[in-house]
Amino acid sequence: MTTLKLLPLLLVGLVLAPAARALAHPGHEHKIMGRVSVVRQNHIEVKATDGKTSMFTLNEKTRVIRGNAKVNADAIKVGERVVVTAIETKDKDGKALMVANEVRLAAAVPPPPQSKR
User: Fold this and answer.
1) 86 forms bridges with which residues in the sheet?
2) Structure pTM?
3) What is the pLDDT of residues 49-74, one digit of tens each?
4) Rg (Cα) of the chain, in Å, rounded?
5) 18 three-state secondary structure
6) What residues of the chain score a pLDDT lower than 70?
């Protein structure tokens, strides 16, 4: 192949390489939707709609919201549907760690009205 034929491929590679690296770096938000499979004092595990399970660390900055109201992390229950917004960071050993910024829970379902007798 001549150099002129390889030039377009080289240019495409140079343009796409930095974009691919930017998408893979830690520090940007991830949103995961699924069901809570494990609840612990400082983390939860969520089985996403694609079947993958992810662990999220909860800290003092994590907001837990049910409907429009802010609630305590104690409100998160196994089996509940959630949307977690998290940032990927590194722990002290250099392992990837997902820290939850926000955990959104479905709005509480009001009890059915009582019939008058």
Assistant:
1) 30, 100
2) 0.69
3) 899 999 999 999 999 999 999 999 99
4) 21
5) helix
6) 1-27, 109-110, 117
Closest CA to 99 of 112, 85, 86: 86
Domains in the chain and their CATH numbers?
Answer: 26-105 (2.40.50.140)
Q: In the 8-state DSSP scheme, what is residue 75? A: G
Per-residue tokens: 96: 């990837």
Cβ proximity of 108 and 66 under 8 Å: yes
Rounded to 5°, the CA angle 49-50-55 comes to 75
Amino acid at 111: P
Residue whose tokens read 């694609």: 50
CA of residue 20 relative to chain centroid, distance:
20
